[in-house]
Write a structure and sequence with these properties.
The complex is a heterodimer. Chain A is mainly alpha-helical. Chain A has two domains: 1-261 and 270-283, MetI-like fold; 358-573, MetI-like (MetI-like fold), CATH 1.10.3720. Chain A is built from 21 helices and four strands.
Chain lengths: 573, 438
């Protein structure tokens, strides 16, 4: 055996396989993207085709995530560095992350299709962008907040060391934000799956658009009432979520532990069997060894070039704009963004002008209906998730046991189950009017559960002991200790759950079951219907109204409630 | 004492916990303690000796793995209703006002609202919190918060008051003020408090409060000695009798914390002792401090007080310096040895070499080094390399030899000293320990 390969174990083989698999996946997906455009791809419902479809869907999700990360780094950096940009970008982010992104699908599709009319590229790009819009905002916010929260001495140390901005970025700012970026990436990935079915198979102006993927597979299976195919799609989806969690996120979560800024030890250190396994591999060390040898061997050849380039690679930026120029540049950027926003508003106005008085009345009525369903869904979710969260959070054993399971279940795109749930509800005599609300529960409930569990498990041990020593009855323990302690987190959960329910309303009020359309009056179904019939003025009105209601409610109600909850029931003493 | 009635009786209790990493830690082994009426008992000892664990067993907050706890002859099942507890971290509910917090224990006792209000007013008055009834805990200083903790405990008119380092989180001035009040409260018949049990880290506090002082030892937690403190109340801290009592407790603690080396037969194999979990800089700091003292010697408790560290930490540092041969400890005196003076006089390079030789000779590190040298000697053994060992293997070995010490913290100490000595290194990414030898 050559010395470089000695001692190679199964971990090295696994690493090579992963590498090869990754390359093969990229090639396969690239071929799909470059394939000639067909409006509605025929979906092969045989189980053997499922892995390929899952791969396509996964590739879209991962591509969108990469784009989201790039966006987040840029957006967060600009917002953190420039006060002017901060004032403009933060409210924008707040709005973007709370409005229903699905409504923008038609515009995106039509625009991007025009880019490459003869290839799948346009449709693929539209699907990826749609996933991106569900993934990017929390990442950007997380990076911005990490940058803002960086201790000043660290930044000063980098300045004194004479680091350039790019070096500070990669050596300080990104590592310090790594933990938040990974955790939010996990959430983003789950959020990106939510509209999987709609992104891969939708109707626009009476035309069917379809991309090969596990979402379109499921939607065709539902159309044809093919139960084995539905089960297959659900199983493969779960397998995909679990594998991504185990192979990608778990190892990343463990790995980014080393970028924690505070030195305090934490109770539960996350572990990952995949990372443990791969750490046994010798391949990376061998590769590093070979690289070092090559560098050493080529050093004499490179040295003259290095010497020639050294004046260029000195300290400090190559080009330092004068303060006046920098100010002008910043102003130009702000003006450009403002102009873009103004143009968008003007176009929206042109569309909305076409609406008649009756349309406005219909919009208001449907808005009220969906609002009632959203609030009902939040209340229903609270009714079960609050007690369940307290019970799970109280017991360390139960929470370590159930957390991973709940995480996977929560990542499963609920809309894939909507048609099945509707059939089930029909059987027990609940129509789509009420059923839509139950579907919206499915899209928002997990946020409440997660938040309550983490808040209750963070209650200091001595507080629980005090409640026991002073013999609080079980009812009093809930009333005095657990519910107040969980309340601030519950409000946070409500905010996200309501967001999820609004988003879910678009697919929950307009469900296709076995070739039959099940529609109930509401703002969500209005958006879906106007998309299908390409009624753009009314669609624009629907999206505008929903955005307005979500953002307004966030500002007026949720935010002040959250502030009050934190002040009154926060743990900080 | 035999005339008074037995209140709380812990008989042969043993308590074991399972740590998150799976290690089963024995916190207490075969501890028996009887508390009689009108007694104040202080539990003292180094951290990790199980004194807080015993307090929780007496409160009925947890049940012993072996043995039993009884109250007035009745075996305890669940929380002891006759007791109330004061916590180090105060454990107040932040969303309740002072009076709501004080009333916490009253609902369970089935009092009507009027009686509850009276009890709260009385307790608030006893600890001097009048005027603060409607404040929230976050508006109060640490001392005021602990007053609320005391009021909450007194409101239920407990027969037994359990206190878990009640002054530990307070500044010295506040602590002193509250301490005298506690004695007055106990002596005041109106409070109904019959017995006090206090866990404390401070020698002065134990002597000031307790009629009986129970000294705990570690590995696993057990009772070393009991000391009767007959000084009459109220006690004055600067009085000669008080000082003498403090000295006596110091002597007992020294026997526990700095035991004289056992006279083992020269041929017997050296017993494996754990290395104290202290940092390199702390040991050099102790040596530096000793070198400024006349004759290079000092009293361990005095030095702890002067340097502002607690005696528990101070004795751990002293034990480490002793194990490396830099000090000797006759009684509670720490004496710099010749080797210690040479170490201080040396330059950085020879210091490193000295640490290397001394640490390599310590039985525990010697064992670890042998493990590393033996590893991977057999050529081509699957998955092993010479001088490299998995962190988990070493942790498992430490767990077997020291079942009463959290293996991870002992491991961290070994790595720190091994790195300082240039004997071994640790790769946190691959979780492996490597021998550094030519």
């Amino acid at each position: 055996m050559p010395p470089l390969l000695r001692g190679m174990g199964p971990a090295d083989v696994a690493m090579l396989c992963l590498l090869a698999g990754g390359i093969a996946a990229i090639v396969a997906f690239a071929r799909e993207v470059e394939a000639p455009f067909r409006e509605a791809v025929r979906i092969d419902l045989s189980p053997a085709a499922l892995p390929r479809y899952a791969l396509y869907s996964l590739s879209r999700g991962v591509t969108a995530l990469v784009v989201s990360y790039l966006f987040a780094l840029g957006f967060g950096w600009v917002a953190a560095k420039s006060a002017a940009a901060e004032r403009l970008l933060l409210p924008l982010l707040d709005i973007l992350q709370s409005i229903p992104v699905l409504g923008f699908l038609p515009g995106l599709v039509l625009g991007l299709m025009a880019l490459a009319p003869n290839r799948n590229l346009g449709l693929e790009l539209a699907a990826i962008l749609m996933i991106f819009t569900a993934q990017a905002w929390n990442l950007a916010l997380s990076f911005y907040q990490s940058l803002k929260g960086l201790p000043a001495p660290l930044r000063e140390a980098c300045q004194i060391a004479g680091w350039r901005a790019s070096r500070t970025f990669w050596r300080l700012e990104v590592p310090a934000a790594a933990q938040g970026l990974v955790w939010n990436g996990m959430l983003s990935m789950a959020g990106g799956w939510f509209f999987l079915m709609v992104n891969e198979a939708f109707q626009l102006g009476g035309r069917d658009y379809r991309l090969p993927g596990i979402g379109s597979y499921m939607s065709v299976a539902l159309d044809q009432g093919n139960v084995p195919a539905m089960v297959g799609a659900i199983v493969v989806m779960v397998v995909m979520i679990v594998s991504v969690d185990q192979l990608l996120w778990r190892p990343l979560v463990v790995w980014v532990e080393k970028f924690r800024l505070d030195d305090t030890a934490r109770g539960q250190v996350p572990t990952s069997w995949v990372l443990e396994f791969l750490r046994r591999a010798r391949l990376p060390r061998r590769v590093a060894l070979v690289r070092r040898r090559v560098l050493r061997a080529t050093a004499p050849l490179v040295r003259p070039f290095r010497a020639a380039a050294s004046p260029l690679m000195g300290r400090g930026p190559l080009f330092r704009p004068s303060p006046r120029l920098a100010r002008t540049g910043r102003a130009a950027v702000v003006v450009a963004i403002a102009a873009g926003a103004a143009l968008g508003l003007w176009n929206l106005w042109l569309l909305l002008r076409q609406l008649r008085g009756g349309d406005w009345g219909a919009l208001a009525a449907t808005g009220g209906l969906t609002f009632a369903r959203v609030m009902g869904a939040v209340a229903l979710s609270t009714a079960w998730a609050l007690p369940a969260g307290v019970i799970i959070g109280r017991s360390p054993r139960l929470s370590t046991l159930l957390q991973p399971v709940i995480q996977v279940v929560a990542s499963f795109p609920a809309p894939m189950l909507f048609p099945l749930v509707i059939l089930l509800l029909e059987r027990i005599g609940i129509g789509i009017g009420l059923g839509a609300m139950i579907l919206m529960v499915l899209s928002g409930q997990w946020y409440i559960l997660f938040n309550v569990i983490s808040a209750v498990s963070a209650i200091p041990e001595q507080l629980k002991e005090a409640a026991t020593v002073f013999q609080l009855s079980p009812v009093a323990q809930w009333r005095r200790l657990y519910l107040p302690a969980a309340f601030p987190a519950l409000v946070t959960g409500w905010i996200t759950a309501a967001g999820g329910a609004w988003n879910g309303s678009i697919v929950a009020e307009y469900v296709e079951v076995g070739g039959r359309l099940q529609v109930t009056r509401g703002l969500g179904s209005l958006i879906s219907e106007t998309t299908a019939s390409a009624n753009f003025p009314l669609l624009a009105g629907g999206i505008a109204l929903m955005s307005f209601m979500v953002v307004g409610w966030n500002r007026l109600v949720w935010r002040s409630l959250a502030r009050w909850a934190q002040a009154r029931f926060g743990m900080a003493q | 004492m035999s005339a008074t009635e037995l209140l709380l009786d812990a008989q042969h209790v043993t308590q074991r916990f399972r740590l998150p990493n799976g290690q089963v830690l024995e916190a207490l082994r075969d501890v028996s303690l009887a508390v009689h009426e009108h007694e104040v008992v202080a539990l003292v000892g180094p951290s990790g000796c199980g004194k807080s664990t015993l307090l929780r067993l007496l409160a009925g907050l947890s049940q012993p793995t072996e043995g039993s706890v009884s109250y007035r002859g009745q075996p305890l099942s669940g929380v002891l209703p006759a007791a109330a507890m004061v916590f180090q971290s105060f454990a107040l509910l932040p969303w309740l006002t002072v009076s709501q917090n004080v009333a916490m224990g009253l609902e369970a006792r089935g009092m009507d609202p009027q009686a509850q209000r009276d009890a709260v007013a009385r307790a608030v008055n006893l600890v001097g919190l009048d005027g603060f009834e409607h404040a929230y805990p976050k508006e109060l200083s640490g001392g005021m918060k602990q007053r609320v903790g005391f009021a909450r405990a007194l409101a239920v008119a407990p027969e037994i008051l359990l206190m878990d380092e009640p002054f530990g989180a307070l500044d010295p001035l506040t602590a002193e003020n509250l301490r005298s009040q506690v004695v007055e409260l106990w002596r005041d018949a109106a409070t109904g408090v019959n017995a006090l049990i206090v866990v404390t880290h401070s020698v002065e506090e134990a002597v000031f409060l307790a009629g009986r002082i129970v000294v705990f030892g570690t590995n696993p937690g057990h009772i070393r000695e009991e000391l009767a403190n007959p000084l009459p109340y109220p006690r004055r801290e600067r009085s000669p009798e008080f000082e003498e009592m403090v000295e006596r407790l110091h002597a007992v603690l020294t026997r526990t914390l700095l035991p004289e080396p056992e006279a083992a037969a020269p041929s017997a194999p050296q017993r494996l002792v754990p290395f104290p979990r202290v940092h390199v800089a702390e040991v050099t700091g102790l040596l530096d401090h000793l070198s400024t003292q006349p004759d290079g010697r000092g009293d361990v408790f005095d030095m702890a007080q002067n340097l502002g560290v607690d005696y528990d930490r101070m004795t751990a540092v002293t034990r480490a310096a002793e194990q490396l041969g830099w000090v000797t400890t006759p009684g509670d005196i720490v004496q710099l040895t010749l080797a210690g003076r040479e170490f201080l006089a040396a330059d950085a390079y020879s210091r490193k070499a000295t640490v290397r030789d001394r640490f390599a000779a310590h039985p525990l590190s010697a064992r670890v080094l042998t493990m590393l040298r033996e590893r991977g000697e057999e050529e081509e053994e699957e998955g092993t390399e010479y001088g490299v060992i998995d962190e988990d293997d070493l942790l498992a070995d430490l767990t077997i030899h020291f079942p009463f010490i959290p293996a991870e913290s002992l491991f961290a100490t070994l790595v720190e000293w091994g790195r300082e000595a240039g004997l071994l290194d640790h790769d946190a990414n691959s979780r492996r320990v490597m021998l550094l030898e030519s």
